[in-house]
Amino acid sequence: MNLIIRHVLTSVMFSLLIALMILGITFLFFPLEDWTLIWNQKFGNVSYLFWILGTAIVIGIIVGLTIGFYWKQRIYYVDRGLDELVKGQKLSTDSDSYKELEGIFQHMNDLQDKMKRQVELSQRLATERAEEREKRLQEILEQERSRLARELHDSVSQQLFASSMMMSAINESNSPKDETMKRQLQMVEKMIHQSQLEMRALLLHLRPVALIGKSLQEGVKELLKELTQKVPMEMKQKIESFPMDKGVEDQLFRILQESLSNTLRHAKATTLQVMLIERDETIILRVVDNGVGFEMENMKTGSYGLQNMRERAYEIGGTFKLISLPNQGTQLEVKVPIIGKEENEDD
């Protein structure tokens, strides 16, 4: 039942009860000899009894509407504060406007502070885990990855490049007259080109997983510069300089690697945009391509790469959003709140 209607019905019933009690007490002290006088006594052709009951009902409706709108406004005020709390926004509500809600808003502020501390703790734990992982596995992992990347680059990658050049030369200079053979050779050339992209994506995965001696911004710029030299794709970047925790840097770099790898293997894009900025105490990483895209409804929620990126974003207290449309490209966006910045500025 609607809040206002419930208050109106309650107020009407309460008003009628009070009216009947007043009538009962009045007639108890001033008893009537003939009770029909109550019904026969009229004012404006309306019985006195109807006047009493009607007045009680009208007063009940007015009081009910007033109380209903009063509490509806305050419930909306609380609901707006809870919505801001769920979205991770700073509470804009002010308990001074409604003194009776001061205790509720105090609890909401305490809850927001607790959530901030939990996110801060999560980021700190991610930083500690990243540093510990870097200390224990840095040398072994780097050596093994470097060895595999070097062997693949020196053997398979070079052979694919040579095959691609040979097929391109055959198709351009010695193109067969047989149309079927010509289409088959062109298909082989496309398959070799796709294999090159797959190999570059694999080599991208084999890069060192930690940002050793570099900031995230430096690592992103270096990664994009290297891809620009190897991949026929226009790359645009907007990278702002700002400090962040080691754990956050590490996870964002891994998300970017995974995203670029997916773009190289599946998107068939000609343009790639990477943005890393800070706005409103939030780190924003956005990757946009103009590739083939896909239907969001048909997306595999259990995809390892997608699930991996989402978990990395959640691990540092961030949000992960992916938008894609067929033939309109794909956009990936990760937002991570910066915890403790205000406290540091106050200090």
Report on the structure:
The protein has helices at 3-29, 36-40, 48-86, 102-173, 179-205, 216-230, 246-267, 304-315, 341-346, and strands spanning 42-43, 46-47, 234-239, 271-279, 282-289, 319-324, 330-337. By secondary structure, it is α+β, with helices and mostly antiparallel strands. The chain folds into two domains: 3-93; 117-346, Heat Shock Protein 90 (2-Layer Sandwich), CATH 3.30.565.10. It has a five-stranded mixed beta sheet with strand order 3-4-5-7-6, with helices on one face. It has a two-stranded antiparallel ribbon with strand order 1-2. α4 packs across α5 (179-205), α4 crosses α7 and α7 (246-267) packs antiparallel against α8. The longest helix is centred in the middle third of the chain and has 72 residues, at 102-173. The chain starts with a helix and ends with a helix.
Shape: elongated
Instruction: Bin the helical content.
Output: 55-70%
Flag low-confidence runs.
342-347
End-to-end distance: 51 Å
Reported by name, the CATH topology of the largest domain is Heat Shock Protein 90
Write the element-wise H/E pattern from the N-terminal end onward. Answer: HHEEHHHHEHEEHEEH
Tell me the number of structural domains. 2
- CATH architecture classification name of the largest domain: 2-Layer Sandwich
Spatial strand order of the main sheet: 3-4-5-7-6
Q: Can you summarize the main beta sheet?
A: 5 strands, mixed
CATH class of the largest domain: Alpha Beta
Mean pLDDT: 78
Structural class: alpha+beta
- Please, what is the CATH homologous superfamily of the largest domain? Histidine kinase-like ATPase, C-terminal domain
The fraction of residues assigned to DSSP E strands is 5-15%
SS summary, helix count: 9
Give me the count of strands: 7
Radius of gyration: 35 Å
